[in-house]
Design goal:
Layout: H1 2-57, H2 59-67, H3 74-94, H4 109-131, H5 140-150, H6 152-165, H7 174-199, H8 203-249
Helix pairs in contact: 1-2, 2-7, 3-4, 3-5, 3-6, 4-5, 4-8, 5-7, 6-7
Length: 250
Amino acid sequence: MEQANNQNIEPMQISNSEEEKEKKSFFDVVKLILRTIKNAVKTFFDEVIRHPFYILTHPVAGWQAFKQEKKGKMWVGIVIILLYVAMKMVEYNGLGPVVNTNNPQKFNSITILVYSIVPPILLSVANWSVTTLMDGKGKMKEIIMMAFYSYCPVMLIGFLKIIISNYITTDEAQFILLLNIIGWGLTGILAFTGLMSIHEYGLGRVLWCIILTAVAAVIMCFIALLLFNLAQQVYGFFYSIYDELSIRYM
């Protein structure tokens, strides 16, 4: 009889121990997932918000760490510029009715994407083409990352502007303009100090670099428009030939 009871107890003990192991493994997996999410959120906050803010408040040390210590990361720059694109898309329809003059029927995400991403890339290429002739120390990758990082203030203030704009009156609409000025002013400061640190320029040389970069960007836009116009004419020429042949022989 005792042997029979022992035989019944042993399977129960085995099943209980297996259940405890399953529960323990389940909780371990949950803890691992929560720990991974926590680390990801902390990394995102440190890299996307804290470090750009540190560069803004400590431009010399921040940009030196960005360049010399390789703390600048391309994925962070891409995240910042994509958040800026998202902000512009939300802003189009999400601004408060007091300050929003956009037509919802004309919303075009592709246009917003192009107008948000092309300018920093165009200016980065123009700056690289100029600084290679002015003994600049910055590489193309560093210039593009610097440009993307510089958009962090205007991106953060843009989201703040969207929220505030839905709670202001007509008399307070000028506050939104003030936020725009602050956002782009901080972005300009980041870009200016970034050029000084990345290329190891003095104040006068940076000012010349900015002027020549603007000239180079205008020339590049002019050439791009010429090429686009030429491509349209070539396309129209071949299409007219195809159209005439199709009418005659088809």
